[in-house]
Structures are given as structure tokens and as C-alpha cells.
Amino acid sequence: MSELLSFSKYQGLGNDFVLVDGRQAELGLEAAEVRRICERRLGVGADGILELRRPEDPAALVQMVVHNADGSVAENCGNGLRCVVRHLVRTGEAPPEGEIVIETGAGPVRARLEGEEVEVEMGAARSDAASLQLTGPLGESPDDDPDEPLLQVSLKLKDRKVEGTGVSLGNPHLVLFDASREQAEALGQEISTHERFAAGVNAGFAHLAADGGIDLTVWERGAGLTLACGTGACAAVAAAVATRRRPSGRWIEVRLPGGPLKVKAAEDLSQIWMRGPAVHVFDGRLERVAPADGEDEA
């Protein structure tokens, strides 16, 4: 008899996830199975899988492991965190009031329900070469300036050079200002897989709006263009605050294709807060399929 896997589908501003629970028994999700589940025509369809595991941190309620749609694993996911909080409250594992601690690949984060939204303390934004997993010596380009508030990185692409601000929220981001969705579509894949980022990078294309908000499109590692990226929104605000494009200590609306998030950054970037929706879509069970001969599990 084939094994059935129970799951719940959630979305945050259209960034959608299949949530599975591996706390009672190890699921052993392999890359090929993740790709099959996330495939939108032949599988459930999702930008990624959120796997719940038993936490190592005694203060945490659960551990969240993020499997990207291509089978790779991400350190953190802002929209995914909100979905996990919504799931824990919906299933009665966490109270609707009070703080919830979730363990991630980037460390523990604290979250709470705020009405219909979920607020998450995302931790500090960092910009050192190690956090970004940046390869090559700093200073190989005049735009690699370690004395800047955040690391300015220059990349040579096939037919142009681009400059961005490097920010890590546990996962690496490169924020390009004065950029558009059209540029995201044209350049996102090349930037995301550029050799200077050893583990790849999430590429954020940001436009500073006259009303004080930020319009943002993100090409995510392992997923491509998505309707929303929580850590990408946090990275954009952190970069804007550090370069004095936006003020610290205030909620800034970040408008993504799937809808707006609110993000606030401390002046020294020691804490980033994110607030936005998370919605339960449906529950289901799927049949686990053994990998075909020769199918890549990497």
C-alpha cells in the first residue's frame, strides 16, 4: 500500500506553501519528492514546503525547515513563518494570544498574532561577506565597500553590470534600488545564481515610492519570481534604512505583487519586525511516490 502524507496548504500574499508535520516520524523528504509536490500541474503546487520538526531549542515550540520548490533548503522564510504561526494557532497548539518561538535555520524567531495579521521579530540584518556567503576578495570592484553601512556589491552580468546592497536575514539578499519588475524578470535568474554568491542569493528589485512606501519584486533562490517574499521585504527596508533612504523605527509599507507587508527596522538594524497576513487554504493527503530509476534526488 502506498504511503499517504497529510498536509495543509497556506499562503501569505500569494506566496504559497505545503505544510507537513515531521515531529512524530521523520519524513525524509528528498529533493525529487519536493519538486513533484510543488509542481503546479502535476502536484499540489507551491513555492515551497514547510516541514515542522521537533526543536532543538527548549524555548521553541517547533522547528521550521524550508524546502524550496527546486528541492534546495533555505535558511529562513518570512511568509512561511507567518503561515506556521497561523497553523499552530488554528490547530490549537499555540494560544491566539502571547508569544510563539519558532526555530529556523537562521536561529530562533518570536512571533505573535496581531488581529488578522501575524507579527514576527525577524532578528538582526547583517551585511558581512560571511553572512552573505560572498566569494572573491572584497575590493575586487570599487563598489565592494566594507566601510558602507551595508555591503555594496557589484556584479558583472552577461551584458551589463549591476550594483546592489547585500543584506542577510539568515538567508542572503541583494537589493537593487531604482529597479522594476521588468528588470526582475530579465535579470533575476542570472543574479540569483551568480558565482559571487556561494549559496545563491535572493534578488530584490525595489522602487522607492513618493508616499514613503517601497514597491518590490523578488526573484527567490530555488523558486523564481514569487508574489511575495517576507525576508526580501525585510531586506529592502533594512537596506533603505542603512543607506538613509527611509527612516528607522517606523512601519514602512512594502508593496509586493501579492499585496503589502509592513516592515520596521531598528536604527542599528539589530532587529527587524514584519507584519502581514497568513491564510489557511485547505487540508489534504497525497500519495508519496518512490523515485523513478535514475531520478535525481540531489
Shape: globular
Rg, nearest Å: 19 Å
Calculate the mean pLDDT score and round it.
93
- Strand proportion, as a percent range, falls in 35-45%
Separate helix tally: 5
The helix/strand series, from N terminus to C terminus, equals EEHEEEHEEEHEEEHEEEHEEEE
Q: How is the main sheet built?
A: 18 strands, mixed
Quaternary form: single chain
Low-confidence stretches: none
Q: Compute the separation of the termini in Å.
A: 26 Å
**Helix/strand/pairing class, anyone?**
alpha+beta
> What is the helix content?
10-25%
Ordered list of secondary-structure elements with their pairings:
Layout: E1 4-12, E2 15-21, H1 31-38, E3 48-53, E4 62-68, E5 73-74, H2 78-90, E6 100-104, E7 107-114, E8 117-123, H3 129-132, E9 152-156, E10 161-168, E11 172-177, H4 181-192, E12 202-208, E13 214-220, E14 224-225, H5 230-242, E15 252-256, E16 259-265, E17 272-276, E18 279-287
Parallel strand pairs: 2-3, 4-6, 11-12, 13-15
Antiparallel strand pairs: 1-2, 1-18, 3-4, 4-5, 6-7, 7-8, 8-17, 9-10, 10-11, 12-13, 13-14, 15-16, 16-17
